[in-house]
Specification:
The protein is of the alpha+beta class. It is about 35% helix and about 30% strand. The protein folds into five domains: about 30 residues; about 100 residues, Beta Barrel (conserved putative lor/sdh protein from methanococcus maripaludis s2 fold); about 110 residues, Efflux pump adaptor protein, beta barrel domain (Elongation Factor Tu (Ef-tu), domain 3, Beta Barrel); about 50 residues, no CATH class; about 120 residues. The protein is rod-shaped and about 220 Å long.
């Protein structure tokens, strides 16, 4: 066989040999695997409790919870006064400290109007009253003299009557004559006529006095009006407060009804807020309210409910609650600046605020962390103490509060209704909720702590 024929035969033999060696290696490996599998020891299975997921939990305990209602409103002053001019006149002075934004006290002068015309009028009216009083005094003196003259005229008439009577008696006795009797009778008529004229004059004096007295009373009323107008030349602050505006300058003519200034009392501020109609059964007069500015301004105030509107708004299904905030203006009034005693900010009329009403009525409810509630369900530990399952809940409202007795780190809570499905003592799972489903075995940190085991295996919340 020559070399050209032996070359293919060798290649075939080489390939067969390599395939046989590979097959042999596979057989040996399979035998070794089978041997190891058959001789491997049986692993010890861990109990179900050791394989359970560790999670934090809290126990449901009835807790008296105050209902919290949030609302919005705009503050307004309970005592703001528009100061207006009541007379026509020219402003002659305005104190230097009377400027918008300054504090004023009741009775403090805001502006003065030229009083000269009113002083002259008051003087003229006073003189006229003095003239009427003088007429009344003269009438009294005249009446006194007329009464004296009337007494004298009456006496003279009585004397004349006596002489006439004696003349008649003498005639009847045969000692007198008819001419003498007629002369005596004429004298009686003259004396009685003079007395009658005086009496008639006296009768007119009471009516004349009444007329003068009425005119004097009327004049005194005019004087009082003149005095009031003179007083109105000085316009003062009607209340303690702050000047919102001052709209009168020296030499300016003001007229009745013209706005001169506005004084706002910041000691009592009212805020009408809108809350749901359902809040009507729990909010009562006297409930405490916390307010904060609805802006970047960090300011808080405290007030209380002073009134509740009797009617609700059918369109918005809301009702109005009136909040009152009392502020200390001691420093503001003394130092003429708008700050409170504590150095904080005053709540100003027109400011928009967020109000949180905390009711005094406290009902027993369950508290769970807000993150533990998903789609109105919570994950609880079942009666076997191992498996978790979901339970429906009814969330009444949410609150922000620190409750270290339940969870030292949690501040966001959901208030849920107490039901037979969730009896007190039920364990609600509050961590690892993304890893736990219905039937997942769990061990709570409370159980581990009770058993004295390490809780470091707990996963993230």
């Amino acid at each position: 066989m020559d070399g050209s024929q032996t070359q293919p035969v060798l290649k075939i033999l080489s390939r067969v040999l390599r395939a046989g060696v590979g097959l042999l290696a596979l057989v040996i490996a399979g035998a070794i695997f089978a041997y190891l599998t058959m001789t491997a020891p049986e692993p010890e299975r861990a109990p179900l409790e050791e394989r359970a997921l560790v999670a934090r939990s809290i126990r449901l305990e009835p807790t008296p919870i105050a209902r919290v209602w949030d609302g919005y409103g705009t503050a307004r002053s309970m005592n703001g006064v528009d100061v207006k001019a009541e007379i026509t006149g020219v402003v002659i002075s305005r104190p230097d400290d009377i400027e918008a934004g300054r504090a004023v006290t009741r009775g403090q002068t805001i502006i003065r109007i030229d009083p000269e015309d009113f002083e002259l009028r008051l003087e003229a009216e006073t003189q006229l009253a003095a003239s009427l009083q003088a007429e009344i005094d003269a009438l009294d003196a005249r009446e006194k003299r007329l009464k004296e003259r009337y007494e004298l005229a009456t006496d003279e008439a009585n004397l004349a009557r006596n002489e006439y009577d004696r003349a008649v008696e003498a005639r009847d006795a045969g000692a007198g004559n008819l001419n003498e009797i007629e002369t005596k009778l004429a004298a009686v008529r003259r004396a009685e006529g003079a007395a009658a004229i005086i009496a008639q004059t006296l009768d007119t004096i009471p009516a004349e006095r009444a007329g003068l007295s009425a005119r004097l009373a009327q004049q005194r009323a005019v004087i009082r009006l003149a005095e009031r107008e003179l007083e109105r030349t000085t316009i003062t602050a009607p209340i303690d407060g702050l000047l919102q505006l001052i709209d009168a300058e020296e030499t300016e003519l003001v007229s009745p009804g013209q706005l001169v200034a506005r004084v706002v009392d910041l000691a009592r501020i009212e805020i009408p807020i809108r809350v749901p109609v359902s809040a009507g059964h729990s909010i009562v007069i006297g409930d405490q309210v916390d307010l904060r500015a609805d802006s970047a301004l960090e300011a808080e105030w405290h007030g209380q409910v002073v009134g509740i509107a009797p009617e609700a708004d059918s369109e918005s299904r809301s009702m109005t609650v009136f909040i009152e905030v009392r502020q200390d203006l001691t420093d503001a009034l003394r130092e003429r600046r708008a700050v409170s005693t504590e150095g904080g900010r005053l709540l100003l009329p027109g400011q928009f605020v967020v109000a949180r009403v905390t009711t005094s009525v406290r009902d027993e409810r369950f508290l769970v962390p807000r993150i533990a509630v998903e789609r109105d369900r919570v994950m609880i530990v079942g009666e076997d103490g191992i498996h978790a399952h979901r339970a429906p809940v009814r969330v009444l409202f949410h609150i922000d509060a620190s409750r270290p007795d339940l969870d030292p780190a949690e501040t966001q809570w959901a208030v849920i209704e107490m039901t037979d499905a969730l009896p007190p003592g039920t364990q609600v799972i509050v961590s690892n909720l993304d890893q736990i489903t219905d039937g997942t075995p769990v061990r709570t940190t409370e159980t581990l702590a009770r058993d004295g085991l390490d809780t470091g295996r707990e996963g993230g919340s």
